[in-house]
Amino acid sequence: MRQYNASYRSLVAALGLGLAISVGAEASVVSGSAQGYGVSSELSAFGGNLGISVPPTPNGASVSSAPPASASDSVLGLEVSDSHSTGLPPTNYALGLSTGLLSAEAASDVDGGTGARHSEASALVNDLGFGVGTLNLLNVLTATVVDLSAATLSSNASVSGEAGSFVASGSASLENAYLSVAGLSLLGLGVNDTTGALVANPSPNLIILDALGITVTLNRQIVDCLFASCSISVDALVVEFTDFVFGGSLLNGDLVIGHSQASLNASPVPLPAAAWLFGSGLMVMLTGNRLVKRPGRACRD
């Protein structure tokens, strides 16, 4: 019995020491990233004969650390359009996207040391105009099936903290933003009842339209946080088309406005020493247990 108690005490000591090593070990934040951009879009209809393709713009606000880094970028404006004529008499179907100043910023202070760190990004879009419709004789987009406009749209995303206590946060804001589909202004969720404008500070992942192949989401957020890593992406406004009927064709793709994302990653907590001690203690206990249960034998000369 004394052998068993000694073995048990050895196991407890091993577990205690292993736990102390595990708790005492610090996981450093070893990398961080952040990115922001104003607009990106991929839209296509009529077998690819009508479409617009806009890569993330501006594309210079992106950082990856360590060492600490920051970046910003801006574009004075964006003007993209495309049209396709079909039918008898011919009808010119068109897509149009325009903006004023686009700007974005990103920063991360990760330096490989211990303690809390921070990554953040933001994006701003001014004077947004987007339309899906037909062109008149003056090649002006009219009879819009989808019409979206806004004075400003912005988003920000940030992750801060250290392993086990990361915190992600994000938000989006819209100023004088209006959306109409098939010539009708939206009413209801996500719309200001007095002015008809989209809500200025939407809650995360607020879907204001999901019908007939078009989905509109305000303040879209995707968060993925674990013990040793955390990331968040925020889009001020997203319009997604999935087989949206347009001029006898199907429109597919998306338009992303005001994108920001941030992330932090920590090194794993070192556990080999604790695991070795645990295994050693367990072996001692099992061996001692066998000795206790083994029947005694008479001594022989």
Structural features, described:
- The structure is a single chain.
- The protein is mostly beta strands.
- The chain has 2 domains: 1-25 and 270-294; 36-268, no CATH class.
- It has helices at 2-24, 272-293, and strands at residues 29-45, 50-57, 62-65, 69-75, 78-86, 91-99, 102-108, 117-135, 141-161, 167-175, 178-181, 184-185, 206-211, 214-225, 229-246, 249-266.
- Strands 4, 5, 6, 7, 8, 9, 10, 11 and 12 form a 9-stranded antiparallel β-sheet that branches. Strands 1, 2, 3, 13, 14, 15 and 16 form a 7-stranded antiparallel β-sheet that branches.
- The chain is elongated.
- The protein starts with a helix and ends in an 8-residue tail after the last helix.
- Mean pLDDT is 84; it is low at 11-24 and 296-301.
